[in-house]
Amino acid sequence: MLRFDVISIFGEMFGAITAQGVSAKALERGLYDLVLWNPRDFTHDKHRTIDDRPYGGGPGMVMMYEPLRDTFKAIDQAAADVPNHRIYLSPQGKPLTQQKIEELAALPRITLLCGRYEGVDERVIENFVDEEIAIGDFVVSGGELPAMMLMDAVIRLQPGALGHQDSAKQDSFSDGLLDCPHYTRPEIVDGMAVPAELMSGHHAQIAKWRYEQQRQRTQVRRPDLLNN
């Protein structure tokens, strides 16, 4: 079973993962486990301080080394026999791709560090993080939403998470292309009809049409994928 250890000062946000949708059902089925860690629990002052001003000046605050160090040490001691891959969600990280999600989905344990403010002390990254991952070229208020996006993508690839075992295989990016268009009932609505190929009942013809649509859509919307 896959285990997530998540370091966050806003652990309650992860109810969005555990209480609803595919990820909630996967948790009920025992396909993964989630353990939340608050670095405030590893402070030693009455204010439970986890951030301080950056050296060199500048706006904002930086998450401190010592509370995060002790959080990582506690995580390492928990389930110490299970290999752990530690990720910091950061705009400076490598872009998250479906290929990376597939790699992560095969791991037994993943720790996700959710930064806040201006980020974390660089020494935390140097000593306790295996890789930095970004969900896009933009900045959000903290790492919780990126972490949940990564988790959802990984969870749905766990065997038994989706209703149909081939659903994940047909997603966009799984074969390097965007997904093809999809249609359902009614056959004709507002003067628009379902493509005849999908109504033919000819499996080879349908597969060919879908592949051609994938190529065309990718060429128009994401030609960089074809170049790669």
From TrEMBL:
* Pfam families to which the protein is assigned, alphabetical: tRNA_m1G_MT
User: One GO MF term, please?
Assistant: tRNA (guanine(37)-N1)-methyltransferase activity
| Superkingdom of source | Bacteria
Please name the InterPro entries in this protein's record: Alpha/beta_knot_MTases, tRNA_m1G_MeTrfase_C_sf, tRNA_m1G_MeTrfase_TrmD, tRNA_m1G_MTases_N, tRNA_MeTrfase_TRMD/TRM10
Keyword Coiled coil applies: no
Q: What is its main location?
A: cytoplasm
Q: Which residues bind S-adenosyl-L-methionine per the record? A: G115, I135, G136, D137, F138, V139, V140
Compartments annotated for it: namely:
Cytoplasm
Q: Which GO terms describe its cellular component?
A: cytosol
User: Any idea which UniProt keywords this protein has?
Assistant: Cytoplasm, Methyltransferase, S-adenosyl-L-methionine, Transferase, tRNA processing
Task: Please list the residue ranges annotated as the tRNA methyltransferase TRMD/TRM10-type domain.
Answer: 2-227
* EC number(s) recorded for this UniProt protein: 2.1.1.228
> Example GO biological process term?
tRNA N1-guanine methylation
The chemistry this enzyme catalyses reads: guanosine(37) in tRNA + S-adenosyl-L-methionine = N(1)-methylguanosine(37) in tRNA + S-adenosyl-L-homocysteine + H(+)
**What does it do?**
Specifically methylates guanosine-37 in various tRNAs.
NCBIfam families to which the protein is assigned, alphabetical: PRK00026.1, trmD
Entry's family note: Belongs to the RNA methyltransferase TrmD family.
Q: Which PANTHER family match?
A: TRNA (GUANINE-N(1)-)-METHYLTRANSFERASE
What subunit structure does UniProt give? Answer: Homodimer.
The identity of this protein, by name, is tRNA (guanine-N(1)-)-methyltransferase
Organism listed in the record: Thiomicrospira cyclica (strain DSM 14477 / JCM 11371 / ALM1) (Thioalkalimicrobium cyclicum)
The coding gene here is trmD
